[in-house]
Specification:
15 strands, 6-stranded mixed sheet, CNF1/YfiH-like putative cysteine hydrolases, single chain, alpha+beta
Length: about 270
């Protein structure tokens, strides 16, 4: 896997995948930075998540800034609960607004959202975990998956591909995937518990996913692991793009749960059919 920067700054508030948004004018997609919001330390300043201890008023003001820049309202946004699982949810027009103003109204128990309906802003939140963006360029289906190590090991990415095959008749060659900014293999150190969870996936990923350290721990490359699992699921290499940004290396731009010892905000990924 080679990483390249597939995102470019749109404003201080967020990045956009320039290739996708140029090639597919029916698409809205992006990833927020930590800049340009109203939240106070340690959530400064563009925290988009309601579950981290930040002022709800500040989070809603930040979300309002985001949707306004997209020409939308909070009633167009949909959020899942995010429990570090692998459950997926098909979002319909009647779901619009769920989770946008309160965590209690989010779609419960899900870490993946997808839809083929226009004008629904799918949104999920991150501070090191891997954001996976999906589009079927033929059928115009879009999706997001929140892939921490548990979701990655549970193969939430391949599960999205299988779901689209079953529900929409998607062909893997028509599905494109973007692996967004997240903690890199340069910074993500794990112990035997995490490495043991990868045992059932042996043979499905390349050697560079896990690098042993002299201290008995390991460096784990979650971007590479998601990339390899998606290839195993039939997505062509040319259809998978990987951001080079590491959230832990660049806390000037991004929130990092690891780097900031758990006391930090959350970034938002978003995708929508116009």
């Amino acid at each position: 896997m080679t990483t390249q920067e597939v995102f470019a700054f749109y404003t201080d508030h967020f990045l956009i995948p320039t290739g996708w948004t140029t090639d597919y004018p029916w698409l809205v997609a992006g990833f927020t930075t930590r800049k340009g919001g109203v939240s106070q330390f340690p959530f400064s300043s563009f925290n988009c998540a309601l579950h981290v201890g930040d002022s709800a008023q500040a989070v809603l003001a930040n979300r309002q800034r985001l949707v306004e820049q997209l020409g939308l309202t909070l009633d167009d946004m949909v959020c899942g609960e995010q429990v570090h699982g692998v459950e997926l949810y098909y979002v319909r027009p009647g779901d619009k607004g769920r989770g946008s103003r309160t965590r209690e109204s989010a779609i419960p128990g899900v870490d993946g959202l997808y839809t083929d309906h226009p004008s629904i802003l799918l949104t999920s939140f991150y501070a090191d975990c891997v954001p996976l963006y999906f589009i079927d360029v033929r059928l115009r289906v879009v999706g997001l998956a929140h892939a921490g190590w548990k979701g990655t090991v549970g193969q939430i990415g391949p599960k999205m591909v299988r779901r689209w095959k079953e529900q929409f008749g998607s062909h893997p060659q028509d599905i494109k995937v973007l692996i967004g900014p997240s903690i890199g293999g340069c910074c993500y150190e794990v112990d035997d518990r995490v490495i043991s969870a990868l045992e059932p996936l042996k043979g499905c990923f390349t050697d560079e996913v896990i690098l042993p350290k002299p201290n008995g721990r390991y460096m784990l490359d979650l971007k590479q692991l998601n990339h390899d699992l998606l290839k195993q699921a039939g997505i062509p290499q040319a259809n998978i793009e990987v951001s080079g940004w590491c959230t832990s290396c660049r806390t000037d731009l991004f929130f990092s749960y690891r780097k900031e010892q758990g006391r930090t905000g959350r970034l938002a990924s978003f995708i929508m059919i116009k």
